[in-house]
């Protein structure tokens, strides 16, 4: 499970500090889902980065299956992220020179190469997101929705315990957004992964379920 205990993140600047995340406590059971909605600047991306082991909180504790990533050294934390967490961002961050399949396999390459099993899973995931026939295509040959589906397949490659998505449909029209959200939810369920989605879109949040609102760094009760 995922546990956040009194997470705070303060940014200090020349013109005073910003408390981007202010005393957030949350729990998500295994396989659970959470959608976080809130205006721009309310701290959603900062919170997701903290949960994802990308940026330490100023205070408080985050644990995934009992492991606090910020107690690990940098190499162990990178391995923890790569194995246990899948990320989907608003920008798909695909490698332009690599095929759809190679992009899906990127999380395996980070640890020395894709095993036969992982390549098979990558192929299966691309089929599952409706891109089986496009696996040798480059990102530039795919539509925005298709690229985001590749990014989803990549996030799920290692059946991570936790999938984090930051405005995953922010650049898609509402119909494509609904389809992409449905795939993200279905694949997370099939992998038994917890899913946390940050979104502006009430339709997307409703599809994910477990909607919480964030405002001025705080999650509303
Ligand atoms: P959201 O994703 O909800 O739009 P963010 O988490 O990106 O919000 O930002 C929350 C607040 O923290 C904003 O006021 C933002 O300006 C501030 N902030 C985010 N990152 C930094 C940073 N690296 N340095 C200073 N302030 C930051
Ligand atoms: Mg953001």
Description of the structure:
The chain is α/β, with parallel strands linked by helices. It has one domain: Rossmann fold (3-Layer(aba) Sandwich). It is built from eight helices and nine strands. Helix 6 runs parallel beside helix 7. The longest helix is centred in the last third of the chain and has 18 residues. The radius of gyration is 17 Å and the shape is globular. The protein binds adenosine-5'-diphosphate and magnesium ion. Adenosine-5'-diphosphate (ADP) binds next to strand 2 and helix 1.
Distance between the termini: 20 Å
The proportion of strand residues reads: 15-25%
CATH topology: Rossmann fold
Q: Poorly predicted ranges (pLDDT <50, ≥5 residues)? A: none
CATH architecture: 3-Layer(aba) Sandwich
Helix content: 25-40%
CATH class: Alpha Beta
* SS field, number of helical segments: 8
In CATH, what is the homologous superfamily? P-loop containing nucleotide triphosphate hydrolases
Provide the residue-averaged pLDDT: 94
The major β-sheet equals: 6 strands, mixed
Q: What general outline do the C-alpha atoms trace?
A: globular
Structural class: alpha/beta
Oligomer: single chain
Lateral strand order in the biggest sheet: 5-6-7-3-8-9
Radius of gyration computed on alpha carbons: 17 Å
Q: Which small molecules are bound?
A: adenosine-5'-diphosphate, magnesium ion
**Structurally, how many domains make up the residues?**
1
Question: Based on DSSP secondary structure assignment, what is the total number of beta strands?
Answer: 9
The arrangement of helices and strands along the chain is: EEEHEHEHHHHEHEHEE
């Amino acid at each position: 499970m995922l546990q956040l205990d009194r997470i705070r993140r303060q940014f200090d600047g020349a013109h005073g500090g910003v408390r981007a995340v202010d005393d957030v406590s949350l729990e998500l059971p295994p396989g659970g889902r959470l959608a976080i909605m809130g205006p721009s600047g309310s701290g959603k991306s900062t919170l997701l980065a903290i949960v994802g082991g990308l940026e330490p909180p100023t205070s408080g504790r985050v644990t995934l299956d009992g492991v606090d990533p910020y107690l690990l050294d940098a190499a162990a934390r990178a391995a923890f992220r790569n194995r246990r967490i899948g990320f989907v961002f608003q920008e798909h961050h695909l490698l332009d020179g690599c095929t759809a399949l190679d992009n899906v396999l990127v999380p395996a390459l980070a640890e020395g190469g894709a095993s036969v099993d992982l390549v098979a899973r990558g192929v299966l995931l691309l089929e599952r997101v409706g891109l089986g026939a496009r696996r040798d295509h480059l990102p530039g040959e795919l539509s925005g929705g298709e690229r985001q589906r590749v990014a989803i397949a990549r996030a799920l490659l290692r059946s991570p315990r936790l999938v984090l998505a930051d405005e995953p449909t922010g650049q898609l029209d509402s119909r494509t957004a609904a389809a992409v959200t449905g795939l993200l939810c279905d694949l997370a369920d099939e992998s038994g992964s917890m899913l946390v989605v940050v979104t502006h879109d009430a339709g997307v949040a409703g599809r994910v379920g477990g909607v919480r609102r964030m405002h001025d760094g705080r999650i509303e009760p």
